[in-house]
Design a protein that fits this description.
Chain A is mainly alpha-helical. Chain A has helices at 2-40, 49-57, 67-79, 89-120, 122-135, 140-153, 159-182, 187-195, 200-235, 244-253, 257-285. Chain B is globular, with a radius of gyration of 20 Å. Classes of the chains: A mainly alpha, B alpha/beta.
């Protein structure tokens, strides 16, 4: 049973990982070779092929760092430095995560409120929906500096401006999914409540909201992932003091490619954990749901 | 008796009529017309029908005869175009708000995120009763439809027949005077259907509620009803109202008796008559 499951689910993933690693190492050697010959190996040409290989895989500032270099960099940053130190990646991950989560919660609330308004008012449906769609055609990269500058001039700095930009990306999938979800109840179910003389508020809590949950959770997974992107983008233009975005920026300033890659790896790990968190909540809330056969 | 005296006598009798015998549902000249681009659809045409308290009335007819539309207008799920309609002496909308009837749809319409017990509790909760009271009533209703022990199950764990029984328990929980059923057993197999017909009969005998029952099964109508309203389409109208001579309490065996077969034949002929009229 367990072996079967491993074969069906674990094995393909492992194979792809292995192939990816091999390709990565090959690419590392290929891309770093010219740099290694020019900067690391003896100028007189007295080096063997083995020297070249080792040099390409362990350069100070490689074009493409090898996986073990990145892992080592993350490991030392986590173990050698205290949690409060700006050299500890966990601190930066937490700074980014807290802003992304705050933005996600704000976006979730905004998205819910907008969806409820749209579903319950035909006027708002017509007035709001085009603007909500239009809002997402503006690139976040263009909006982020404007928001940061405006909020900064109002004295709002730190976590909040980043959260606002994350919210800007989060609310959209939630709104769209919830409009669909709150309209999901069938005529039959609405008529059933109608025969009991149920008011709008009761109809919302007893029928519309529970019916919309299967739509809400997939939207939340999308939202929290794009909220993380928004947070990192917001950390870039102002040269934020901390956060994974600022690590990316300083890394590229000083040509520290290993630092960029470790920040990138931490960002993807964070993304996976955040969507995993949403999935956990979903599993807990939807424990007793089954699709009607 | 002279004419004026008789009229006075009638009036007095009407006044003295106890609540029990006041009609549950009165339809007078009810029309339902759907506007359509080419020709308006006459879904119900001049319906006159009085349903007394405690009657079991079946509406039977082919598709499009308006039997479901008639039930839906009584339940205020659809408006009437003209005529007068009262339910427990109230306008349909006011009767609905007052919880005058329980409605059983063709599909069980159970909420999949609620347990069986919670589904039966739904209308009681909407009425704002205490949770403990809701639970108690719901448990009793489930027992009554033979589903004790299934309280904690979810609808998808039950068979179709059991789901429909839950929906009947739900409709009965708040003790409405009238029970309206729109082909409640139409989607079930014949064995389950027989079984549920028997249960419904027992339930009606025990509680003496008014039941309005839409069906397209002749044997179901004859087996259950005290009165059978035969309807015909284009325009939707009542062709014949047949009083059942069968006793109030019935068993499935009754269906093999000559009286049952004669009544079924009468219904069949009325249906055919309505069919040949145009």
């Amino acid at each position: 049973m367990n072996i079967d499951r491993f074969r069906q689910q674990g094995l393909p993933v492992l194979v792809v990982l292995l192939v990816g690693l091999i390709l990565w190492y090959a690419l590392t050697v290929g891309l770093n070779a010219s740099g290694a010959i020019a900067r690391v190996l003896p100028k007189d040409g007295s080096w063997s092929l083995e020297d070249l290989l080792l040099a390409t895989l362990n350069m100070q500032r490689p074009l493409l760092p090898a996986p073990h270099q990145i892992l080592l960099d993350i490991w030392t940053s986590l173990t050698k430095w205290s949690i409060g130190s700006p050299r500890n990646l966990l601190l930066h991950t937490w700074v980014t995560a807290s802003a992304a989560l705050t933005g996600f919660v704000m976006g979730l609330l905004l998205g819910l409120v907008l969806a409820v308004c749209i579903v319950h008012s035909r006027t708002l449906d017509r007035a709001l929906l085009p603007w909500i769609v239009a809002s997402q055609t503006v690139p976040v990269l263009a909006i982020a500096p404007i928001v940061l500058v405006i909020l900064g001039s109002l004295g709002i700095t730190g976590l909040m401006p980043k959260a606002v930009i994350a919210m800007y990306l989060c609310f959209f999938p939630v709104t769209v999914a919830m409009v669909q979800g709150l309209r999901a109840p069938q005529k039959l179910e609405l008529e059933l409540l109608h025969t009991y003389g149920t008011g709008r508020l009761d109809t919302f809590w007893l029928l519309r909201l529970p019916s919309s949950l299967p739509y809400l959770f997939p939207a939340c997974r999308v939202a929290i992932a794009s909220g993380l992107v928004g947070t990192i983008v917001a950390e870039l233009p102002t040269g934020a003091q901390a956060g994974l975005g600022s690590r990316l920026l300083t890394g590229s300033y000083y040509g520290n490619t290993v630092q960029i890659w470790s920040a990138l790896v931490m960002a993807s790990l964070l993304g996976v954990s955040l969507t995993g968190l949403v999935s956990l909540v979903e599993r807990w809330v939807m424990a007793n749901r089954r699709v009607a056969a | 008796m002279t004419q004026p005296l008789k009229r006075l006598d009638d009036a007095l009798r009407q006044q003295a009529e106890p609540l029990q015998t006041r009609p549950a549902i009165v339809a007078k000249g009810v029309n339902v017309i759907y506007p359509a681009a080419d020709r308006p659809v006459h879904a119900l045409s001049d319906i006159d029908l009085t349903i007394r308290q405690g009657e079991f009335v079946s509406l039977i007819g082919p598709s499009g005869c308006g039997k479901t539309t008639l039930l839906r207008t009584i339940a205020d799920l659809e408006p009437i175009s003209s005529g007068a309609l009262t339910v427990n002496d109230l306008e349909p909308a006011a009767a609905r708000e007052a919880g005058a009837y329980g409605y059983v749809f063709q599909a069980p319409a159970l909420f999949p995120w609620r347990t069986v017990l919670e589904n039966v509790m739904l209308p009681l909760q909407i009425q704002g009763r205490h949770v403990a009271e809701c639970q108690e009533i719901a448990q009793e209703q489930l027992k009554r439809v033979g589903l004790a022990g299934f309280e904690a199950k979810y609808p998808w764990q039950l068979s179709g027949g059991m789901q429909q029984r839950v929906s009947i328990a739900r409709a009965l929980g708040f003790k409405p005077k009238i029970l309206m059923m729109d082909e409640p057993f139409g989607a079930l197999d014949e064995i389950t259907r027989d079984n549920l017909n028997q249960q419904l009969q027992d339930l009606w005998c025990a509680e003496q509620r008014t039941v309005v029952f839409v069906t397209h099964s002749i044997s179901e109508a004859v087996y259950l009803s005290t009165r059978i309203v035969v309807m015909s389409p284009r325009p939707g109208r009542i062709v014949k109202v047949i009083d059942s001579p069968l006793p109030r309490e019935r068993t499935l065996k009754l269906r093999d008796t000559p009286a049952f077969m004669a009544l079924a034949q009468e219904v069949r002929e009325a249906l055919a008559e309505g069919h040949h009229e145009h």
